[in-house]
Amino acid sequence: MSNNFERNFSEQENIRRDKLKKLTENGRDPFVENQFERSHSLTELNDQFSSFSKDELTEKTNIIISAAGRIRLFREAGKKAIFANIQDQKSSIQIYVRQDELGDEEFEYFRDLDLGDIVGVEGIMMKTDHGELTIRIKKAKLLSKALKPLPDKHLGMADIEEKYRRRYVDLIINPEAKQVFIDRTKIIRTIQTILDSKGYMEVETPILQSVRGGASAKPFVTHYNALNNDFVLRIATELHLKRCIVGGFDGVYEIGRIFRNEGISTRHNPEFTSIELYVAYKNMEFLMELCEELFRECSLVVRGTTKINYGGHDLDLSKPFKRWHMVDAIKEVCGVDFWKEMTYEEACEIAKKHNVKVEKHHFSVGHIINLFFEEFVEEKIVEPTFIWGHPREISPLSKLNSKDPRFTDRFELFIINREYANAFAELNNPIDQYDRFVDQIKEAVAGNDEANEMDIDFIEALEYGMPPTGGIGIGIDRMVMLLTNSESIKDVLLFPQMKPRGN
């Protein structure tokens, strides 16, 4: 009887399954192995023995090594010898098998292996006449049978979506893809090392939250059966981290998953990773300097330089980043001066003249200022630039600027017209914060489905007293894209969200 899980195999797949059946019948089932002791990784073998000459290695026949990896190349050298290449996480190496050394039965056992099979080998190190470092095999054992053939090594994965759906195959055949994720881990570790060295503590906060807050975004909603209540997957870690500052920590940070029920594009994935850091007694300028340091040091770790090329643009992350007030940027680019006091109606008229659509009922002058920035300025930014002084209306968690309370002490980092970081002097006045939440509720009623909700517990936390605090969030995925020269966010996520096949 057929069902939805019935499978049809290709000719190659059937051949491989027949080989597995034969191996099992002969007592050589590869899937019973649960361990193989390696004396060296392939990188260690290359590092330790590459400097020796062919003659020097010939004298080291008493050094028996063991290694393991996946067969990636396979060629017979006549009827009695085989050359192959195996690869592990970081490296690859050639192996050499001779019939007169393995014996007829073991040689035929090895000859019947396929590309993609994982083998464990024992042998000695040698170099070929062409000087290629090689393991001369004395013993070989199949550790896992690949029942699916790998894509052609020259053509790769023809369907671009398949490399995201089957990332494991992409990692096998594409060393550059694997390096991106090695670099991603290096970037995260570098950030942790820098922040730890400054005395800041890494913490964990809830992913399931009863109140959405800390950002303007649509949440994923789920029902918590035990509490008989709806919860949301967090859209930011901010409010819980600031509770930690109230509790007396000088600096806390979290690197973790954030969930926003929004679109998918080359820049956006509904599940992504951010770093958020909050430091007591520090201001916006301190965060700018720290942000520069993080980008500079991460670039040095993964690129070996602060000079990078991304999207055809040459950048030098060692230079101080430009600091540009949002209103000054708008005035310089399109000549509109929002420093002047004006009514909402006057701002709407200016928007109309510049073909900027003001469609939302909850909008104010501050929202229109932000529209002008997004419409005219954002796409023109190339060099790393801190855009600061965001309007009060779009910054419900930021302190007001002491010189002009229409604006806040907040900045965003833009590089080649993409946002990489968002930071501000945190609002620590509980009365003002309560009023800002009320304003957000009014916006929600007027149609803003990304407005913050009222978080009474957070208000009460502020009522116990939070010191002046600077907070910053950096998008890890976009940072990795920049420093690994990756075009799409899917290139830096091991398993990005994808539409189901056929949709």
Automatic annotation (TrEMBL):
PROSITE patterns: AA_TRNA_LIGASE_II. Pfam families: tRNA-synt_2 (PF00152), tRNA_anti-codon (PF01336). Its main location: cytoplasm. It is an enzyme of class 6 (ligase). Residues 8-20 have a biased composition (Basic and acidic residues). GO terms for molecular function: ATP binding; lysine-tRNA ligase activity; magnesium ion binding; tRNA binding. It comes from the Bacteria. Mg(2+) 1 binds at E412, E419. Its cofactor is Mg(2+). Binds 3 Mg(2+) ions per subunit. Mg(2+) 2 binds at E419. Its EC number is 6.1.1.6. It is found in: Cytoplasm. GO terms for biological process: lysyl-tRNA aminoacylation. CDD domains: LysRS_core, LysRS_N. Residues 1-20 are annotated as: Disordered. GO terms for cellular component: cytosol. Belongs to the class-II aminoacyl-tRNA synthetase family. This is Lysine--tRNA ligase.
